[in-house]
Amino acid sequence: MIEANGLSKWYGAKKAVDDLSFTVRPGVVTGFLGPNGSGKSTTMRLILGLEQPSAGAVTVGGVPFRQLANAPREVGALLDAKAVHRGRTARNHLLALAQLSGIPARRVDEVLGVVGLQDVARHPAGGFSLGMGQRLGIAAALLGDPRVLLFDEPVNGLDPEGILWVRRLMRALAAEGRTVFVSSHLMSEMALTADHLVVIGRGRLLADMSVRDFIARNATDFARVRVPDHAPGDAERLAGLLRAAGGQVLPEPDGALRVTGLALPAISDLAHEERVRLWELSPHHASLEEAYMRLTQAEVDYRSTADSLEGFEEPDPFGERPPEPAAPGAGQSGWYAPHTPYPRTADTWTGDAVPGAAQEHEEAR
Ligand SMILES: Nc1ncnc2c1ncn2[C@@H]1O[C@H](COP(=O)(O)OP(=O)(O)OP(=O)(O)O)[C@@H](O)[C@H]1O
Question: Where is this region: Disordered (predicted)?
Answer without folding.
Answer: 309-365
